[in-house]
Amino acid sequence: EKGTYPHYMLKEIDEQPFVIRNIIQQYQNEDGTIRLDDDIRDAMKQSDRIYVIAAGTSYHAGLVGKQLIEKIAKRPVEVHIASEFLYNMPLLSENPLFIFISQSGETADLRGVLVEVKKHGYQALTITNVPGSTLSREADFTLHTFAGPEIAVASTKAYTAQMAVFTLLAVDTANAQGIELDFDPLQELGIVANAMEVLTDQKEKLEKIARHYLAVSRNAFFIGRAADYYVCLEGALKLKEISYIQAEGFAGGELKHGTIALIEDGTPVIALATQEHVNLSIRGNVKEVAARGASPCIISMEGMNEETDAFVIPAVHEFLTPLVSVLPLQLIAYYAALHRDCDVDKPRNLAKSVTVE
Ligand code: M6R
């Protein structure tokens, strides 16, 4: 039930800090170590390459998941859009492990790949919010995202939950290989939950940003580099899906290769700056678009923010910034849709779970 909330989407955005805390609890042993099935640990350890298969927002979580596993557990990962995988099939490694990410666990495009993969005898792990779902039943292993039912068509809390579970999977795989980490993942996820709470308390500010930048615009761009780029893809999808504003997320460095031609007077460009090592270069990209008339809105992270930034996110571990930087983008999309009188929870032409290929 959405209770006093006007929309499920807003409720689900607000639930994110609790979801992260729930995940910490569900996957924690009494001695504070991470609890994952031995079978999953073995499958991760034995595989020589991981293939992540997903669609939409879950695909975007997979892109972040790839970075987490590669950086923390040092295992190679490829991420594929489910609907394309069988047509543009990569050359598989000798011992692949497939990870299917799906909030609903019912997405037909993923199932098509899972059926094919099982025919070849490969192992499959499903990361889902619905443990009894088709993809969960048909895979060898399941990791539950514990986000609670997600009703709004636009996925919010499932996305952050998927990335949190990926973090734990990456850390568990690192532990299993004896890789020493210089951070405490559960503590860092706790800091993420606190940061999310700070963000959900700043709705008025984000509502104003949505009004200022997006009230009348027909299009919008999201730019970022490194992990921020992946979050920009998600920010753009969220905005398209519920406000019908044509939005594109792209890598800051790609601007000069074509997209910058689209910048006109007043074009909103939302830039994410949460990654120290690319802070200067993304700010350089902002200057390039501003010089061509764009209306830039910089969302940065504490510690690398500048006075003119529109919004500042509390600092979290550099690997985990996507879990928090997406919140302002979710809320901006929400308010942009609201200002345009769109049906936030049930956008046109869309279904919550896509059960046709
Ligand atoms: O249930 P799934 O995670 O498999 O769904 C995948 C996509 O259909 C889904 O994420 C879709 O992109 C959302 N409506 C985005 O908000």
Q: What is the CA–CA distance across the termini?
A: 30 Å
The bound ligands are: 5-amino-5-deoxy-1-O-phosphono-D-mannitol
Please report the total strand number as a whole number: 10
Please report which band the strand proportion falls in: under 5%, 5-15%, 15-25%, 25-35%, 35-45% or over 45%.
15-25%
Oligomeric state of the chains in view: single chain
Would you tell me the structural class of the helices and strands? alpha/beta
Description:
The active site is at 352 (for fru-6p isomerization activity). Residues 40-179, 209-347 form the SIS domain. It catalyses: D-fructose 6-phosphate + L-glutamine = D-glucosamine 6-phosphate + L-glutamate. It is a single chain. This protein has 13 helices and ten strands. It is of the alpha/beta class. The strands form two sheets. A five-stranded parallel beta sheet has the order 2-1-3-4-5, with helices on both faces. Strands 7-6-8-9-10 form a five-stranded parallel beta sheet, with helices on both faces. Helix 2 (16-26) runs antiparallel to helix 9 and helix 4 (56-73) runs parallel beside helix 8. The mean pLDDT is 96. 5-amino-5-deoxy-1-O-phosphono-D-mannitol binds at residues 55-58, 102-104, 107, 153-155, 237, 241, 353-354.
